[in-house]
Design goal:
The chain is α+β, with helices and mostly antiparallel strands. 35% of the residues lie in helices and 34% in strands. The strands form 2 sheets. Strands 1, 2, 4, 5, 6, 7, 9 and 10 form an 8-stranded antiparallel β-sheet that branches. Strands 3-8 form a two-stranded antiparallel sheet. A hairpin with a 2-residue loop joins strand 9 and strand 10. The relative contact order is 0.31.
Length: 153
């Protein structure tokens, strides 16, 4: 997969998470996932259309999601992933993908994004069909967030 497609998503995650949650990311080594692949128990899925097509999956544990939602809501305690916390996390996906789409546009690649879909549960797995999936571990003080980027080339 072309690194020109991956770097905008990493940049967008770093900037958005620093801005909205004061999280500094330690970007882990990217690796390829075979389809189907397992995920954490909370995922945000956003589609990509336009000059490139695919999907991005933002994956984290429920505990990381609660802590992140709390940080996004100015430290308000989040003991359960209620509708407000889920809305905040979905908006996180929108912000990351909107920023990535802007970076791609500035690089001459025009894309649109779909609204985010959030899934929660045990033993979740994803399939990316014919697309290769590159996983980017995003280590931070709350725990691991994984960015799975699947692009049809």
């Amino acid at each position: 997969m072309n690194v020109q497609y991956i770097n905008p998503f990493i940049k967008a995650c770093s900037e958005v998470l620093m801005t909205i949650a004061a999280l500094k990311l330690d970007i882990g080594k990217p690796y390829v996932k075979e389809s189907p692949f397992s995920t954490d128990n909370l995922i945000i899925v956003i589609g990509i259309t336009g000059e490139i097509r695919g999907q991005v999956v933002i994956s984290m544990s429920e505990d990381v999601a609660k802590s992140l939602a709390s940080k996004m809501m100015m430290g308000m305690p989040v003991d359960e992933l209620n509708e407000m916390a889920k809305s905040a996390l979905s908006e996180l996906g929108n912000m990351i993908m909107g920023n990535a789409a802007t970076v791609l546009f500035n690089d001459g690649i025009n894309v649109d994004i779909t609204p985010p879909s959030m899934f929660m549960g045990q033993n979740l797995s994803m399939t990316s069909g014919e697309m290769k999936t590159v996983a980017i571990p995003l280590n931070n003080e709350l725990g691991l967030i994984t960015l799975d980027i699947s692009i049809k080339e």
